[in-house]
Sequence to fold (1026 residues):
Amino acid sequence: MKLSKIALKIDCRMIGDPDVEIFRVAGIDEAGFGDLTFVSNRKYISHIKTTKASAIILGEDMPSVDVPNLRTSDPYMAFARALELFFEPHQLESGIHSTAVIADGVELGATVRIGAYSVIGKGCKIGKSTALYPHVVLYPGVIVGNDAVLHSNVIVREDCRIGNRVVLQNGVIIGGDGFGFAPTKDGGFYKICQTGRVLIEDDVEIGANTTVDRAAVGDTVIRHGAKLDNLVQVGHGAQVGEDCVLAAQVGLAGSTRLGRNVWVGGQAGFAGHLEVGDKAIITAQSGTSHDVPTGAVMSGSPAIENAAWLRSSAAFSKLPDLIRKVRTLEKQIEQLKAMIAK
Amino acid sequence: MKLSKIALKIDCRMIGDPDVEIFRVAGIDEAGFGDLTFVSNRKYISHIKTTKASAIILGEDMPSVDVPNLRTSDPYMAFARALELFFEPHQLESGIHSTAVIADGVELGATVRIGAYSVIGKGCKIGKSTALYPHVVLYPGVIVGNDAVLHSNVIVREDCRIGNRVVLQNGVIIGGDGFGFAPTKDGGFYKICQTGRVLIEDDVEIGANTTVDRAAVGDTVIRHGAKLDNLVQVGHGAQVGEDCVLAAQVGLAGSTRLGRNVWVGGQAGFAGHLEVGDKAIITAQSGTSHDVPTGAVMSGSPAIENAAWLRSSAAFSKLPDLIRKVRTLEKQIEQLKAMIAK
Amino acid sequence: MKLSKIALKIDCRMIGDPDVEIFRVAGIDEAGFGDLTFVSNRKYISHIKTTKASAIILGEDMPSVDVPNLRTSDPYMAFARALELFFEPHQLESGIHSTAVIADGVELGATVRIGAYSVIGKGCKIGKSTALYPHVVLYPGVIVGNDAVLHSNVIVREDCRIGNRVVLQNGVIIGGDGFGFAPTKDGGFYKICQTGRVLIEDDVEIGANTTVDRAAVGDTVIRHGAKLDNLVQVGHGAQVGEDCVLAAQVGLAGSTRLGRNVWVGGQAGFAGHLEVGDKAIITAQSGTSHDVPTGAVMSGSPAIENAAWLRSSAAFSKLPDLIRKVRTLEKQIEQLKAMIAK
Fold:
């Protein structure tokens, strides 16, 4: 495809030869002849000079370069759209595989695709154009919206709801029993029925092997547009707000609620029954044990305000030195005292 | 159901109108007309005044309220039992699905239920009234007790043992090979056969996508009544004691042994070959690198005694301030020295 | 088997009665009459005196013992090989199960074994003597080498490559979509096609429920001989070097590259776009946020040089005491000033 045509399709301003032929989109280091690449992360600016790509997508604020380039205020989005021009995503075959076990009375929308060995329980409904890859299991009473994609080994437990355009990567488990046990007098535990549902709203994507639990009462909710990475744990009754972003291996204990647009770094954890305000940022490996105000940036375990944590973390490596200094000061003061006492 | 009848069934003392009709058990915030709710966590006491529930289960020590209420020394347990009065848990259909692949000679107890596409290897035995949901795989030689529930996508590897009334949530993997490799002279690794079994004793529950590994020699054991949440890792040869509670994403390295009734917070980790005493409490995100005495409460990474950790964590945010103070003291002492020297 | 014969087979020097009959290899604490045991971890040296084993494998540098023993410079490797003399590993039945769904044109090597309900997509190739246990799903275009073992519930997504002798434990997911979204002006996210592949080179082993994501562009690579434990997350575009060892629950964010022979302790995390040098060691629960030089040993979150971290961690518990001391010093200096001013 000619670069000029790409520029038009992805709304970029073209600089340089419009007739360069592009065959592929590639990363800055791998790109070679015939490739279009991009830089959005400023860490890679120095690579602009050395790339062998035939063209580059760049931010308007980036330095000028010799290679033909496409300018835009949002190079990452332009890259995303350029990729689509060259990539034919893998699609599940159309139709319902003969081995799928579908209970009587299940409602299937038009052009639903269902892969081999999927199992759909009683009372389920699946919206139009939704794809269930091989080996998906829907327990009874599950409702899935339109244009959703459930990859192989996704399990959706009884009565849960999956919205429109939701993408569940492989091994996601929606609606496993919450971790609810009442302690008994003899030191054991009595299992509490987990009667709530899990609701996954529209446009959510959930990463591989992530688990979202149902609660004893009330719903566990992942709100519109939220993105969860792999191996995340969402406890019973928790709520993940609209357009939240949770990186891999994050854990939310029961009943904790994240507001809108909260960003959570990898391996961070939240105690139960917390309220986290809109647009809060919780950095990787943090341990949040208290409510978090709107817009706060929190770090550390236990989590404190990020700016304070950065200072304290820097100071942490000076601790042994500090202890030595204090010991020296103590000696000096004793000496001064002795001198004065003379 | 009339409130008086519920009081009788869940052993509570009734206060207020005995004829209130209850249709559902619900959380304190969601509850409305016709709902019975409960408060056991003191954090929610203030909600007692504002709830729209028709009745509340309360501890004997809770303040008096206007709504009809049920009093008990253990409101959480009363809530658990009340839930059961209104909730019909989802049950796998009876019988053995025609698509289940069951090896010759497998022994199945009475009223065993087996879902679609389950695979049961040679030499397996399954006790009476046990349910295997669709897509459960038992490798050869597995023995499962009575009244156990294995949810979809549970895998039990060769020769492992699952006790009576055990509940394995979806995606649990019992008996994967332990992480055992002998380093070779060329910097590589030689795989060590993992010949041990995993034994899951009676009344254990294990959460979604949790993994419990087999060892090279000897058994990995989860003892009677222990509860493990989702995405937990139990390494080869580890032992989890009776009635232990492990929150989500906890990791136990190989050969570590937890005593009875140990409580472990989310994302906490244990080095290998440790002994953790009975009734120890390890708080969330801790990193335990040494043996833990009976009854100890440990926090932090590396974990230290909780009370000390709380003090040090509070002090951590004062570190930059402390460094400044020490610098000031150093200057002052220099000044004093100079003054005295005069 | 006579001990003398074992000595010969595993290349050990025999001390004591060569005719002792050995029936089993067992751990030092469990071992009894007829068992061969071993000690390689110095933590267990004291057990040498009390073991009831009939013979012990020991390092050349270990104290002399009364029981017959086998000496070697590498007792762990000798143990590994001794185990193989007595252990008949479980093998998947030969042949291709009648329920496997195999697309037209799939190429299968000689003596490939495929278990029940496996699904092999279009264009897949599987090398000779490779075993796919029941319930393995290969999306279209996957190539698997020779002598590989894919356990039940392994999923390999479209176009990924699995090398020779690779072992994937249960529930491993190779090639799930990377966590790539371009932020939109309204606070939402636009999904970026993940067009890259995941390449797993020869002799890699990956633990249960671990996830390795594909990238938007370029390949995610696990290099020759690397070993990953359970529940590990490898982000899009990351590279794990030759003979790396990643313990359970480790997380690598996108585009991070580990060199050769890097050892990573459990629950450690890496930010994205990092370079970690050969033979670096990252201890458990560390949080690496910067490049790591070759051979460095790093600890803590944020990770610093291990020796410094050990000192600071030891100092951490003295922080409250340090604050008190500084307060005392401040008072003493005020007093000294007052005295001098007089």
Chain A has a mean pLDDT of 95. The two ends of chain A are 92 Å apart (CA to CA). Chain A touches chain B through 73 residues (CB under 8 Å).
